[in-house]
Amino acid sequence: MQTRSSTRASRRDSTRRNIAESKAKASSPSQRVPPANQAAPAPVQRTPQQWAKLNPRTQHYEFGGPVGAFAMVTLLPLLVLLFAFGCDSSGYDPLTRGYRFLSDVASLQFDVGMLWSLITSWKPMALFGYAIFVAQLVTFSISLPGEEVEGTQLRDGSKLTYRLNGLSVFQTSMTMIIMTGKNMGLAFPIWVADNFGHLAVATLLVAYLVSISVFVSSFYGQKLLALGGNTGNKLYDFTIGRELNPRIQAFDIKYFTELRPGLIGWFLLNICMALKQYSTLERVTNSMVLVVLFQGFYILDALWNEASILSTMDITTDGFGFMLAFGNFCWVPMMYSLQARYLSDFPLDLSYWMMAIVIGLEVGGYYIFRSANGQKDTFRQKPDDPRNKDLKFITTQSGSRLLISGWWGKARHINYLGDWMMSVAWCMTCGFSSIIPYFYCIYFAVLLIHRERRDDDKCRAKYGKDWDRYCEKVPYRIIPGIY
Fold first, then answer.
1. Where is there biased composition of kind Basic and acidic residues (predicted)?
2. Hey, which of 10, 234, 430, 477 has its CA 20 to 30 A from 215?
3. Do 233 and 323 fall into the same domain?
4. Residues 327 and 232 in one domain
5. CA 128 – CA 135 distance, rounded (Å)
């Protein structure tokens, strides 16, 4: 899910270019980047004709058009609820349970009173707790210090300012949660684990609320709209995102959503599941340790490299709508914590040979992912670096240089291979008794392939014949020799 966001793969593909640019500008008082907690400069006033030129109607659909949008706002939330309420210590068979439930409803074995009782059994405390969690993240994101960085130039000529304090927000949030619950022992993490389904409903409600708010707001005032979310079809634009960068003064809602609630919520859920397992076994299995460490490192790495998101498609091109809000408020924490949740219900200790395979996949995947991105980073930002002397490239008519050797000569998105290898390692910690924990790596493969195809279309439109020439030099998309 394009949570961020929705995908984790794209978020770290870029470089920390914006930090270097901001530091250079900060050397001149006249070019110093204003603090992000100050009110944003007054927007340039334009005529309706000028805004119409800046915000042209979207002429083509993506993600299946209105039908795909309808599926996103209905079926994906149902899938989250299916996994949330259909998986527990008695078994992980959400699809079977969902089918039985729908069959009972269709055969009228559930009357209206029974269905209403299922709705009213939801615990509002879950919404209260999640709202406090999100409000805390918002407060810390606004108030904690951090490096002020300018994003890429938008098509109206402006550059937005962002505050890089993701790690500080993470650390402060975890400290506050620990201090708040220190006298409760394991009561808090056990409550979170036992009420996972109720929390899933809460994340859905927040995602819908945020999505509706930014969509309605996009029709008021002079707003820069996303080129892909201005079709005029209300459902599609609501789902894809109509406004490009919705803000409340200097607080950027999309940037906050991309890196804060999803990632930090995912980490917190993993810790709660590990403590739930400890409360049952009085120890933590080696498989749970690996999951928490691997995914925790992944999350911290994303927050450490948060500047990279500023030049990704999520920030520069895609609008902020239900797809990104749902992906980051709900999908990421609720679905990405599936392995830790499974291991809390079905504890497993891996054999030494299995641990070696899992660790090998994780380390190998991270090495490919990080070294490939590092090579691209050095090539783009430090052309005179000695490490670039043996790299081959082609120059497009627009002046862009496309690598055709090194990691990027093996496949056009070789970094995706490393990211997917890590996802397989996480799933393998759960053993082979159930296919459900492998949902993540299966879904992630589909997501990466779709994103690669989408990126290929945009590059083909941008570079034309140069892109065809590049694809002849680098024929494989993700997996060298295979795909």
1. 10-24
2. 10
3. yes
4. yes
5. 10
Q: Is residue 311 one of the residues assigned to a domain?
A: yes
Q: Averaged over 269-292, what is the pLDDT?
A: 95
Q: What is the pLDDT of residue 341?
A: 96
pLDDT at 289 over 70: yes
- The verdict on 389 and 447 lying in the same domain is yes
As a whole number of angstroms, the distance between CA 452 and CA 460 comes to: 12
Q: Report the DSSP pairing between strands 401-403 and 393-395.
A: antiparallel
**Both 272 and 354 in a single domain?**
no
Question: What is residue 393's three-state secondary structure?
Answer: strand
What residues make up the domain containing 430? 350-483
Predicted confidence (pLDDT) at residue 22 exceeds the cutoff of 80: no
Residue 312 identity (one-letter amino acid): T
Let me know: does 93 contact 105? Beta carbons within 8 Å. Answer: no
Cβ neighbours of residue 461 closer than 8 Å, sequence gap 6 or more: none
pLDDT of amino acid 43: 58
Give the helix/strand (H/E) hosting 324: helix 322-326
| % of the chain at pLDDT higher than 90 | 54
Q: Which of 363, 259, 257, 255 is nearest to 302 (CA)?
A: 259
